Structure formats: C-alpha cells, structure tokens
Amino acid sequence: MIDLHQLFARQPKSSKHYDVIVAGGGPAGIGAALASAMSGASTLILEGRSQFGGTATAGMWMNFNWIFRSNQEDSRGGIHQILVDRIRAFGPIASCPGRRDPVILNDGGNLDIHPEYLKKVLFDLFEEYEIDYSLYAPIVGVLKEGDLVTGVRVGSKEGETAYHASVVIDATGDGDAAYFAGCAMENSNPAAGWRAPITLLFALCNVDVDRFYAWYHKKPIVLQDREFPNLREAMAWADSQGYTVPIGFSVDRGTLPGVLNFNFSTTRDMFFDGTRSYDLTVVEKLGVLQATELVRLGRDFKIPGLENAGLMRTGGFAAVRETRRLIGEYIFTEKDLMEGTDFPDAIASKYGGRDPMGDDYPNTNIHQGALYPYRSLIPQKIDGLLVAGRCGSASFQGHYGGKSMGNMLAIGQAAGCAAALCAKDGVQPRELDYKLVQRRLMEMDVIL
Ligand SMILES: Cc1cc2nc3c(=O)[nH]c(=O)nc-3n(C[C@H](O)[C@H](O)[C@H](O)COP(=O)(O)OP(=O)(O)OC[C@H]3O[C@@H](n4cnc5c(N)ncnc54)[C@H](O)[C@@H]3O)c2cc1C
Q1: Are 22 and 85 within one domain?
Q2: CB 58 within 8 A of CB 50
Q3: Whether residue 293 sits in one domain with residue 256
Q4: What spacing in Å lies between the alpha carbon of 62 and ligand 1's midpoint?
C-alpha cells in the first residue's frame, strides 16, 4: 500500500542546512550523492530534468562503459559494485553484457543497463541512504558570500528556491554551478575550433537484431546491391539518394527482444554548443529527422533486420559529450591521460579509449587506469565548491578520452567522499588532506 507521507519524506527542505548539495544527477552526480551520504553527510541531490542517470537513462539501453575495470569484468568496488549488484538482482531484463571491441577500448568493462531499472535502483538507493532529492529542479544560480559558495538557487514552477550547504558539488556536466559562481572555465576546444557531436539517441523496435548485426558487421557493406567499404560511405550514398541520415552510428542491443538503441553521430562536424538552448533545439529537430529517415531507409532499401522496424522513441534529451570544463587547481592533461601520471593525490582512475575527432584523429586507447588527481576537483579561487564529471578540470584532450560513465561515476564518488569530509571537519576542499579522501575510498572498497 502506498504511504503518501513516506512518498514525500525525502523532499528537499529549504529551511535545512545540508552538509552537501549535489547539482546534477548523471553518473558523476549519482556517485557524489551516494558517496557523500554513505560517508555520513546529510545530502541533497538536485536534477534539472525528469530522470536521474543523465545520459545513462536518457540515452536508453546505452552501455555503462567501464563500470568494471576490464573486459573480464574486474570489479571497481565501491558504488560501481553496488550498482552492478542492484541492477543484476532484477535478472536479464535489467542488464546484459554490452558491446565489446577488443581493439579499441572505448567499449569495454561495460554493462548494458535498462534505463527504467537504473532509475528504480537510484530511487531505492537514495531512499535507503536517506538522501533528499528532487527532479525538475534545475540550478539557476548559486548563493555566495564573497568567494564562498553557500548553496544553490533552483528555478522551478514554484519560482526560485534557495538551498544551503557546507559544500556544493557541481556534477551538471556543463559546469553550471561553477559557471554561476564565477569560476574560470573553458568551453570545448577553442584552439582547434572543434566540438564533439551532440546526439539525440533513439531506439528502434521490431528489429530482427541478428540479421541486422550480420549486415552491419559485414565488410564490404551492401546497400541496394551496391558494395561500400564501410558504413560511412554507405550512409553518404544513402544521403545522396535523398535520405537524411548521418554518416556514422553505433548500436546497442539492450535487454528487450527486437529493440536496438542507435547512437548516431547526429551533428558530426557541425559544431553545436551544448550550453545554448537553441543549439539543443536544433539538435532535437535534426535527431528526430535522422531517426525517422533511418526507418524509411531501412524499409525502402530492405536493410536486413530493419525491413519492418519502427521508431520506438528518441532519448530524454539531446546528449552532450563536452562543453564547459573548470580551470581548476590542476588541469588534467592529454599526457596524464595517455601516459598515466603517478599523482600522489590520485582519487579516481580512467579506463577506455578516446572517440575519434574529425577525420584526422582516430579512436585511440588511453592509459588503462590513468589516475585522476584530487586537485582537478577544486576551483582556483572559489571555496565551498567541488566540480566533478565531464565539467571537471581537464584540458579538452584530457577530458575527451576516458569520459565513459564508469569513469565519471568514479570521479563523482571521490568528490562525494571529499565533500562529506570537508563538512564534517569544517574545512574547505582546498584545505582538505587528500589522504583522508583516499582512506575513505579504501573503506568503501574502491579499487582505483
Ligand atoms: C551521445 C553520447 C553517447 C555516449 N555513449 C557512451 C557509452 O556508450 N558509454 C559510456 O559509458 N559513456 C558514453 N558517453 C559518455 C558519457 O555518457 C558521459 O561522459 C557521462 O554521462 C558524463 O557524466 P556526467 O555525470 O559528468 O554528466 P551527464 O551525464 O551529462 O549528467 C549531468 C546531469 O546534470 C543534469 N543537469 C545539467 N544541468 C543542470 C542544472 N543546471 N541543474 C541541475 N541538473 C542539471 C543533467 O540533466 C544530467 O542529468 C556518451 C555520451 C554521449 C553524449
């Protein structure tokens, strides 16, 4: 029986002073909120959109890459293992091993998670660890006393509401809280003038998945009795025939029979800015066009497995790969990523590969287990704030490799531990002894 009082018990309280507020409920935010609460801090997580999970849920049946440390499914311990155990408890309807590429490590150590079960697990965990939470609660500003962030402002149907905390963790992906706080930031890769594509993911149903995979993996690829060396050239030809499809995509099988999730390049080489509302509006329009066009192409050209496919739905939002990044106490570099630097203040690690960038920059493996330093969570001047996930302090190249969800979860987890320790000891993040964070991570059985 539903207990209404219980349903509302974890509602955010503007009258309360929280130890930690987490802005953003993607992989980094989930890790931050859970680690903070598990470390004894009173914690509030605020998510601007309709679902916790960020790209992991809006993306639909996407691989949660590097939720393990390797293709052999070596545990990363900590919150990674908690999520894996909770998801797997629902059986094969909730997860399955995801795509794996033995050559390029972008796809590895992964679990393909049914987004609705991930949402269920997150609500359950927030309740269990007594985390206050709200969806539909975008951060539109921060509270500040001089250079100290003391809370956040949420803009919603009720108007603006202020929430107070000892430490705010910015896990918004776009670094909104840090931006509003006046932190130094960089957006995208200004030097190269290149921006990663933004993608509206979508799922097709009524797909003959095995026949589609056989077609998709075959080289040369055949379309309308013509042979093409790769998918890209096949799609370029389809485009010339009047079908508005992008030049590249990858597919995930998911847990439902006959359903395939498509990760299109959507805006490749078009350079949209994911911090601009109208750029995102255009991506939505383009993504819906491309998804419907692929269905039309599959039916008209009888692509094996897609002859009777239908568009099930597009993602919860246009998924953004990179935008603003903090310029923090340490900027994690390409060298750190590719060669692995032995940071004394290491609090997380990155596994996997780097997506291609334009035509000249192919997929590359990064240093497996590249360590990520505590200082990359800390703004240069602003106190009361930690920045985790894709908006953390890294160069464009440093961020763009190993940005998989498992790695962002790891960085968020460390930020949550650090924020809880700061609140408990009454110190600022820049004053905190990083060894305490490392010790707390060990207590949580985290394997870097
Ligand atoms: C198209 C695409 C495909 C990808 N494919 C994969 C893949 O297959 N496997 C993989 O592991 N990784 C993949 N990635 C990478 C991965 O999804 C991201 O790097 C990762 O999700 C970043 O985590 P994050 O928590 O830092 O940010 P996000 O996942 O972006 O989460 C940020 C969260 O903050 C919320 N938010 C934003 N602004 C505010 C605000 N002002 N107030 C409150 N909340 C806010 C957002 O709604 C969102 O929920 C992909 C990324 C994209 C874009």
Answers
A1: yes
A2: no
A3: yes
A4: 12
**Confidence tier at 107 by pLDDT (50, 70, 90):** low
**Whether residue 21 has its Cβ less than 6 Å from ligand 1:** no
In the predicted structure, residue 26 carries a pLDDT above the cut 60: yes
Same domain (yes/no): 161, 214: no
Residue where a domain terminates, one of 281, 314, 347: 314
Which DSSP letter does residue 201 get? Answer: -
Question: What is the CA(390)–ligand 1 centre distance, in A?
Answer: 8
**CB of 199 closer than 6 angstroms to any ligand 1 atom:** yes
Indicate which atom in ligand 1 lies nearest the CA of residue 388: 26
Evaluate whether 106 touches 363 at the Cβ level (below 8 Å).
Answer: yes
DSSP readout, 12-36? --TTSEEEEEEE--SHHHHHHHHHH
Residues 46 and 183 in one domain: yes
Compute, in angstroms, the gap from residue 403 CA to the centroid of ligand 1.
9
Residue nearest to atom 8 of ligand 1 (CA): 63
320 lines ligand 1 (CB under 6 A): yes
Contacts for 63 with CB less than 8 Å, ≥ 6 apart: 98, 99, 107, 110, 111, 112, 252
Domain that holds residue 238: 202-314
**CA-CA distance, 431 to 403, in Å (whole number)?**
27
pLDDT per residue as tens digits for the range 213-270: 999 988 899 999 999 998 889 999 999 999 999 887 888 888 999 999 998 777 777 7
CA of 161 to the centre of ligand 1 (A): 25
Residues 406 and 433 grouped into a single domain? yes
